[in-house]
Every structure is written in C-alpha cells, then in structure tokens.
Amino acid sequence: MMKSFWLTSLRRARPKSWAIATLICAGACSGHLASADDAPKQPTPAKTESQAPASEMQSLFDGKSLSGWTNPYEWGKTEVVDGEIHLTADKKFFLVTEKIFHDYEFEGEVKLPEGKSNSGFMARGQVSPNKVFGYQAEADPTDRRWSGGLYDEGRRQWLNPLWEQPEAQAAFDRDRWNRYRIRCVGNHLQFFINDVPTTDYFDPVDLSGRIGLQHHGEKGQTYRFRNLKVRNLGSHEWKPLFDGKSLDGWETVGGGTWTVVDGILQGRASSEANEPNGMLYSKHPMTDGTYRIEYRFKKGDSGFFVRSEITENKPFAKGVQCEIDNSDEVGGLYQTGGAGWLVRPLHYLETGFPKDRHAVVNRHWKQAREGLQLDKKPVVSDDDETPWNMMTVSVHGKRIVVHLNDCLAVDHVVEDLADSGVIALQLHGNQDLEVDFRKVEMLVPTSEE
C-alpha cells in the first residue's frame, strides 16, 4: 500500500519473487490454478500467470484525431496539436476512452504547464454525465511532490499519498515530459513514473473502467499528453466458495453449529453449551488470493482465517485471522497460536498519512464501521435491519490487506505467515454468538470458455 509496507521493503533485501504462489480454489473454483504477479521493477512487466496471455501494446491515440476518446462533460476544450492531445478549460474535466478496460498495462506521457497546475491519469475511471470518478495516478508538481500517488477521485480521496516517501517523490520532473506506467491486474494497482515505482496497492472497489486524462481546472492552462498505449491483460471476476445451498467444499471441527437457511450460512454458539471454538474450513489449502465475505453480525466474536492450520486440539486452528465482531478491532489481524494481536485497524495512519489527512480517513472508517457502503447506504434484508458488511482480504506473499466496506483497515506484512493453509470461519467458544454469511468469494481470472 504505502510506506509502511512496500517502499520500506524495497530498501531491504527481499526475494525477487515475493508474490508468486499456486492457488487451489475450493467449491465452485475447485481445480482452478492462479498465481499473483510480481511487482515489476523494469519497463517490461513480469510474467503473470493469473492473467490472459498478454497482447501487444496497442496505441490509444493515432496522433491525428481523438478517435476512441470522449469528453463526458459539457465543458472543456480538446484538440490535437503536433501529435499531442491538448486539454484546456476553466474548470475540471476529463477526456476518457470510449472503451472500458479490465486488466491492463497502460503507458502515457504528460507535460504540465508552467505555473499552478495539477493533472493525472484515470485508471479504471467510472463515468457519468459531467462526472468522472475512481482511481487516479496523480501528477502533482507542488512542493509536497505526490505525483504517482493514488487518489480516489470523487470518493475516498487519498489512498496512497506519497508522504515522506523520498524515492517515489523524486520520480516526477516538473520541467519535462513524464512517462507513466499503470498496471491493473485483479484488485492490484501499480503505478510507475519514469520507471520508478510509486504505488503498490490492493483495492476491491473497481475491476474495470475507462482510462482518462485530467485537466484539473486551472483557468486557461493547457495540459499536453502523448504516446498513449495499452496492453490487454485479461480480466478477473468473483467466484463463490459457498454455493448458498450446502457446506460442499467445507469441513467443520469444534463447537457451535453451521447451517444453511434460505441461502444464508448461519453460525451459532451458546455460552450455556460451554463448547470450545468452532471452525468451518476449506477442504483445500490456499496460497495467494483475494477473498470477499459478506456477513451480518449479531453478537459474539468471529473471524476469517487465512493460510492457517487446523489442529487436533483447542482452539483447533493456528494462523492469522481477520477479526469479525462489533468492536473497533474489526478487520484487525490476530495470530492464533502465535503472537496474538499483530495490528489493529488504521495502524497505517501515523506512518502513511500526514496529520491533516487523518480526519478524512477516520470519517470513512466510522462510516464503514456503521455498515455503510461507499454510497453511504446500509445493505439490509427485508426481515432484519442488521446491516450486511463486506470484508475483502488480499493475501499475497507475506502481505495481508483488509478492507471493511471498501475502507482500508489493515495493510501489513506478517513475516512468519505460512506459505499455504486453509481459509476458515470461526465461532468463538464459550459465548453467545450469532453471525450470518451470505457470500464467501474468491477473485479469479475470468475463464476464456
């Protein structure tokens, strides 16, 4: 995500292949193999087995016309001058591709005008009349030098500000053309400026969208773009690990009960039963992967385990779990049979965000804790007002990234994380517990069939 993981890790020795592993899905994905891609350090991307065969780079701009591009705004001047796209306006707008892209690698150059200016490239931008929002690779020539950071335009604001990240901050040159490379594979976003890595981030919100060029709205300023091209890398989709009908693909151990009622997986435990922890775990081990679970929590303490070992003795699991409860610790990482609490939610604020940005993140976290989605609306069932929450967990190499309702909770490296192990849902023992799950999914490459 940010300095606390990835730029710090670049300064110390690490294996060249920190995120390649085989993934064996359970349930509907049984027998499917996938692996995460290496973070490329050079202009030529590393081979990624989890994508469709890479196509050749295709030009997005013929140097003569704006064919393939569209302006969704009622304002903004767009023109082609000497093989460049020029954007001029008095208020913010974006020129975007007509085509929607999924997994891809993009390259493009931008030249900022003198004086006050700001720009960027949209990655998987979402478009509606007079509005473009979503992921943006920033072009920021101010003294803070956050060019190449990740900004969520029109939604969560800064996701990866380049605060106190000197190597990345030095990549952008105010007085020259700057070459951006944007790589989107599944929920993994990587940005490079002039071949220097600036952002390495996992985010679950958008798996597709438009490529876009930004005019930030500085009156009379003209922004220039050239050498725009893209390589298709396939696509990803969510596949269920729970079929909504049965416990096929899963095993149970310990206390509590697991039943499927009307498409909902219900986990129940009772303090009167005086039973130990209960686990519902995958029949097959997992390595790298991104998981999405939708749950509704009534009372008690639960968790989602990754790369864990099922044991014969209580608490029947050894590994790292993502906390599921109604406390402020939801989404934090706890190592059962090990160090205990590893990190709690929002641990990254002190090292990854300047003080004047904390309030925005805390506001989004409060919204997520209340069960509100990005549109600030809860998801509830007709017969129950308890909100459904979405937790997304990405496990790549030793890195675990957790989002709650699309707000980042945790981005942490667990040095002693097992190379493989089961995923599991937990019922904490010796307490009254009610938790429902209606989705347990995994992000996989889209089948070509």
Automatic annotation (TrEMBL):
It holds the Pfam family 3keto-disac_hyd. It comes from the Bacteria. The keyword Signal applies. GO terms for molecular function: hydrolase activity. The keyword Signal applies. Keywords: Signal. Residues 1-36 form the signal peptide. Residues 57-231, 237-441 form the 3-keto-alpha-glucoside-1,2-lyase/3-keto-2-hydroxy-glucal hydratase domain. Residues 45-56 have a biased composition (Polar residues). This is Secreted protein containing DUF1080. It comes from Rhodopirellula baltica SH28. The lineage of its organism: Bacteria, Pseudomonadati, Planctomycetota, Planctomycetia, Pirellulales.
